[in-house]
Design goal:
With about 80 residues, this protein is mainly beta. It contains no helices and five strands. The chain has one domain. Strands 1, 2, 3, 4 and 5 form a five-stranded antiparallel beta sheet that branches.
């Protein structure tokens, strides 16, 4: 890794919930963990979390296709407004 280049690890979890005999609700959360060396000076570093992405999908229990769903995504910003 170059000086000051961030390393990123994304943690993703999906949880299916049965809503009825015909439909599922699938919740997926992506949480990026970020670590950056040599910032602001050589030998120093920063680490934290990035913006969280939350997705919700409705999917039929018995799909007629290989994969079929419809859903929405919500992004939670991890930085306060005063820093942006």
């Amino acid at each position: 890794m170059k000086m000051g280049q961030p390393g990123q690890l994304k943690s993703s979890r999906s949880y299916p919930f049965s809503l009825s005999e015909d439909w599922n609700l699938i919740s997926r959360t992506i949480l990026p963990l970020i670590d950056q060396d040599d910032v602001p000076l050589s030998g120093m570093g920063e680490s934290g979390i990035g913006d969280i992405l939350q997705s919700f999908f409705f999917s039929p229990q018995k799909a007629h296709f290989k994969w079929m769903d419809i859903g929405e995504q919500v992004r939670y910003c991890s930085l306060p407004d005063r820093i942006r």
